[in-house]
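User: I need a structural model of DUF1508 domain-containing protein from Flavobacterium pokkalii for a docking pre-check later this week. Nothing fancy, just the predicted C-alpha cells so I can convert them on my end. Input:
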Amino acid sequence: MGTFVISKRFSGDYKFEFVSRKGKTIFTSNAYELRMDCEADAEYLLSELETCSYVKFKTSKGRFFFRVVVDNKVIAVSRKYSTELMVQKGIDEIVKYGSKAEILDFANNGFVFPE
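Assistant: Understood. Predicted C-alpha cells for DUF1508 domain-containing protein:
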C-alpha cells in the first residue's frame, strides 16, 4: 500500500510525496508555503485519483517522467525513470494503491539524529 508523506523542504516550504509500498518516491508535489494548503491538496488528490490524468514527458537526456494533473492544474511531478515502461509502472502503482493510501505528516518532526 502506498502512502502520502507530508514533509518540509530545506527552503521551509511544505510538500507531499506519494511513496510506494517498497519505499520509493513516485511523485513529489509542488511547494506550499502553508502546511494546511499542502494537507488540503494531498487530501483533494486522494479523493480525485480516479479523475486525474498523468501526462508523460521525455527529457532532452532521454529520461522519462510524468505530471499529475487535476482540473487542468499540475499537482505533482514524478521522479525520473530510465524507460517508458517504468513510468507506466509508477502510474499503475498510483492507480492500484493510491485510493487505499494514508496521509502521514512528518513536517513537524525535528532533526531525528542527535549531534
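Before docking, keep this in mind: The chain has a mean pLDDT of 89.
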